[in-house]
Amino acid sequence: MTEEANVLYSTDGHVATIRLNRARAMNALNAATRAEIRAAQAKAEDDENIRVVILTGSGSSFTSGTDLKELGEFRGKHGMFDISVRDYKPIIDAITKSDMIYISAINGVAGGVGLSIALSCDLSLMAESATCFAPFSNISLVPDGGLTWLLLQHMGSKRAFAAIAEATHISATECEDMGLVNRVVGDDALEEEAATWAASLAERAPLSLRYAKRIMRAAHTQSHEQISLMESEYQNMCANSEDSMSAVMAFISKQKPVFKGK
Known about the structure:
Layout: E1 7-12, E2 15-20, H1 31-46, E3 52-57, E4 61-63, H2 71-74, H3 79-96, E5 101-106, E6 109-111, H4 113-120, E7 123-127, E8 131-133, H5 147-155, H6 157-166, E9 169-171, H7 172-177, E10 183-185, H8 190-202, H9 206-219, H10 224-239, H11 242-252
Parallel strand pairs: 2-3, 3-5, 4-6, 5-7, 6-8, 7-10
Antiparallel strand pairs: 1-2, 8-9
Helix pairs in contact: 1-3, 3-4, 5-6, 9-10
């Protein structure tokens, strides 16, 4: 009997879905799952038809984070550093540096480095019963996957430190209020809402979204002047694209534009 995959990959039009599939283990990220996530991300990158990626979980969890059953294997002078750099950084880099738009559809608890992955996505939906959780002080560890930076960006230093120090579950409503996620939807509506949102974004100009993502990511660390210049450069590239020229003509003729990403 063939063992079920830890990660499921599917496509619908210009949208790919990467679904963590270890519901029996709260979608905990063991070595095999981490490798399968990267393989799914690479598959999406290699498909020129894909413009938006939905990242979600199965069962009652998005992911609880690193599989604690493997922690013993990471003990040693550089064990945890190695897994963070070797396994988690490539997953997060594949999200933040991709030209595709990533949407995290947080269906249940998003904990540990799993929360880092969810918050690294460009956009996020959250089921109303889902929670975010930074459990590190419970097991004498510190956040990883850039979670400290991500929480600081949204929550401010005091609330971010409290979330880390107290290791409390943050409700979906609180996450929305603090800007950790874009919107909260009913549990039963999460998949449909994510699919509808992704399909809508996939119809928009790919170059516009791609370059806006690059600018937005850079805006966290660069000055107003630097970002203004960056916008000007990308604006010029967009204005001279086939998509922009055809969209202007479609607007004049009152037709719906069809974008090719060129």
